[in-house]
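$ fold --in a.seq
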Amino acid sequence: MKPMLRPCAAAALALAALLVLPARASAPAAELQRAEELVQGRCSMCHGGDGESSTPAFPRLAGQHAAYITRQLADYQSGRRKNAAMQTVVEDLTPADLGALGRWFESRPSHAHAVANPGLAEAGRQVYEQGHAPAGLVACASCHGPAAQGTATLPRLAGQHAQYIERQLRAFHRRERTNDNAVMHAVASRLDEQQIRAVASYLSALK
């Protein structure tokens, strides 16, 4: 019969065995490294190295909800949301990659941005907060929140490029964008061009 080890001796042997095992990166650290590799290799040229794109042609992603980003990337991958460039970027990414990118961009700090026309932004604030009853337009804040922070299923709009918001509203109005909440089709169809520019201007200045 083999002699039984005392509890302390057994614990010491177990610890020694663990110490000789190869070290493994923690899941969060490994995910962060993978996300940063993807951002710098695929995303930064358009969206900036920290999610603050420098041109209105591309959306700011810093501070955006992780779940929302992940879903949009998946929609590009499946073709539910149309953009040839984005489909090429994400076509070979795994679900884990998409989730890692979402969480990485959500962790980036957002910034407030000055507006060129404060009067236009103020008109946009009124539409965003109160809607426009004569046109049957409900307040944008009723879904996206009073500070335009959004939710896991609705995008954070605060600080987004005004021109990008304008393009998305027009795309909803023309039914060119169909992967998101169908309510946006009705909302966008009730906004005239002046209101679109005003709301976009207001949102771009929020943080």
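$ fold --in b.seq
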Amino acid sequence: MKITIDEINERNDPYQLFLDSIKSKETLRKYKKDLQSFLKIVPVKLYKDHLGKAPRNKEPSTLANIFVKLSKKDPELAANVIATFIKNEKKIVNAGKLSANTLPNHIKPIKVLLDANRIPVHWKSLNKLLPRRETLSNDRAYTKTELQKMIQVAPDITDKLIIQLFSSGGFRLDSWNYFTWKDYIAFKNKDGSYRGGSLLVYRGDPESYWTFVTPEACSTLELYREKWKADIGAYPRPDDPLVRAVKYPMIHRLNSKGVRKRVEKIVTEIGLRPPLPPGKKRHEVQLDHGFRKYFNTMLRRAKVNFLDKEDMMGHKVGLERHYERYQEEDFERFPEYQKAIPFLTISDEERLQLENQQKQEEINQLETKNHEIDDLRKRIEELEYGPEKRNSDLLNAIHNTDTPTLEKVLRPLVHLVIEKKYSEEEKREIFKKMSESRKTGKALKLAELLPTKF
């Protein structure tokens, strides 16, 4: 292993340090965009007055590097620039054009840039300038009726697939920027029907986790796969995006932005996105998060284990995930998810079919258990009253010194007659009566013991 001079010099590039400190590709994309928006509005005069020069161009790396130089020279000045930026953003919040919950996300990239370059800024005092976060408790999940309407008005299979995967998987909007066909695994019954499927969220990211999808979504995904072949001429490869953008002649991912546009068009068509009245900042149902809330609500109604539910939503559950070492490929959480499948299934017809299938499976399980119990009972009877046991009891009685002489003489004769004259079922019944008689000490008459044909 060698360390090159170029690699060492990269550590002197402030913008490169910023890039290196962000692990997620999607987070990197957002942070680069938000950081550039901030850097562009920093007055050029500020650089001329304090550094004696202006940025050469408007490239992100150029603006980031010169802002870092200014911040290193005067951290207090940098803090004042950021404070002014926050105050201007608050005006946009007050005008109802920006959510108070979104504003902190515009500050995070600035903090990452300065932290990566070890510039001491008093962030605690800056955070106090941020507006009070809005409570989102008044928004709700989509209802099943609303999801059914979405499916009805969905213009093509791509939209139906988005709605079914979104609602039955419970993942976040930016997950669409990661999904490939190798992230999906279908579970099938012996007859080839779908039991459900698993979906890996954020592959390659430290925050990756497994969730599951309904048989309904699996069936639509299979139809979508066939349509893919009809359109492209071949089935999708493992590394191909799970859902493709149809406007491109080549295979191109339908990213989160494209998914959001499609959902917004459908939701507007069913009347869930009317123009907001004056003073109201958000709709009753969040466009993408409404699916996630639906998922959470249905899992709670199905009484899914809390830790399993949180894990399927990608939530951190304290030390549980850190110490958990079950094999994910075994999908041990799937039985818990199965409890919620009837609740998550959108189509009434599909749900009734699923319920009938589950009832039939329960009947089959009961029948299997009954057969097992019957087999067990027969094995027990074989051990207690079968030929080996009967012969063993006879020999023990003959060799037992406590057995009366008359019984030693008569018992083999009775035994021989019974073994020759009666069926196996009748013989077991006779010896069962004899065993019960010995246990209770009650004497049996011959007529009570033997069938009439003796």
